[in-house]
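Q: Protein A?
A:
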Amino acid sequence: MFFYLSKIFWALAQPLSVILLLIAVGVVLSIMARRRLAIVAQGLAGLTVLLVGFTSLGSVLIQPLENRFPRQAGPEQISSIIVLGGATQSRIGGARGVTELNAAGDRMTAALVLARRYPDAPLIFSGGIGTIISEGETEAASARRFFSSRVSLRNGWCWRTRLATPTRMRNSLLA
């Protein structure tokens, strides 16, 4: 249930949806002869387009959070590498037979660096299909293709293709 609610929330809360909502409110206010309020709504929509689309506002807002924790040097030995899903465009990649990385693709390349640095550590990748309508391949399948073309796959690596509940994840980590 949370999965569906989170998808619906983000569909309404993302900047493009807010812009479209402001435009719709402006049109309705214009029809209702509320000219000043319509101009305010349309102006806010235009200002949002300018701020989100043509400035680095998003980067400026996220920078304090990203800089809050300094990057640390890796330990001598690790027990496993866990990579969370959300780094691939599985619909595009599945159709083309390649792995398409999105803005979070750095987690895949960082895992690749760790897999080469710690060759004995098992790699655990958790990623299903992150859309309400299941289309394309799972992210685990995309990750398997990504890693298999860059490093030799080992038996200790785990590719989860279904949604992992905390109990399932704990059992897979302990197994």
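Q: Protein B?
A:
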Amino acid sequence: MALVEERGMTEVSMTAIADRAGLSRQTIYNNFPNVEAAVRAHMVDEIDDMVEQIDAELAAMGDPGAQLSEFIRMAMHRFASHEFGLSLRLAMSPEAEAVISMHLARAQRVLGRIVEEGVETGEFRTHMAGDVVAETLFHMIGGLAPAVAHGADPDVMAERVATMLLTGLQA
């Protein structure tokens, strides 16, 4: 999808995607009706891979605070590598964005699990429902994606955000 990020979605043809991938145009069309569908499929695969990786790595950690810090660190590094095509999401149809959002909701559920475990163990304290806290954290973390994608140090940003969030949850 580097081709689409380089040129923009409206400036890329299915032929150009096929050429870059080393496939025939027919093969691309057999799998995707248009450029947006190909981009959406790529983004969904990246999101699903990210959630599986995060969930697997966090499962080995028992401490909810450490899990939250690691979730944030991994998210910041994904943002830095441009794997979510942030600018591409703005050019997508509402239907494509809805599909992507549905897959991102899995990451939000991972956050929800972390918050619930933290509350259950007494490490986190909140007067809000766990799903509301998770949604808020998810959007706060995601709000930093443009800064990190445009050069902010992902480790510095992760440390700042984790410190702020843990200070609030552990107060």
